[in-house]
Please model this.
Amino acid sequence: QQIADEILTETPEPTAVFATGGFIAFGIMDKLIVNGMSADNTFKLVSIDDLEGDGLRPFGKPIISSVNKNISRAADRALRLLFECIDNREEDNLVIRIPSVFVPRE
Model:
């Protein structure tokens, strides 16, 4: 909520907020709701992870738009790379792309 206080001090009526994490977004949303705002017509809130989609729903239903980074797929690939390194099958200059999905919510 401290971040939300800073946002409201700098911009008393924000139109959009991009949070770098779900828990930060939850704190911002909570503070903005206390101040009489809602994430529908008043402002838009987007988080970089989809904690609400993963089942963590402090507001009852998913209300924060977010980017689903597909953490389980990234963790699976990271483990496979670790085992390859252990088995001395490492590759140089490896680039791995894991798709993300924008999840819009009201």
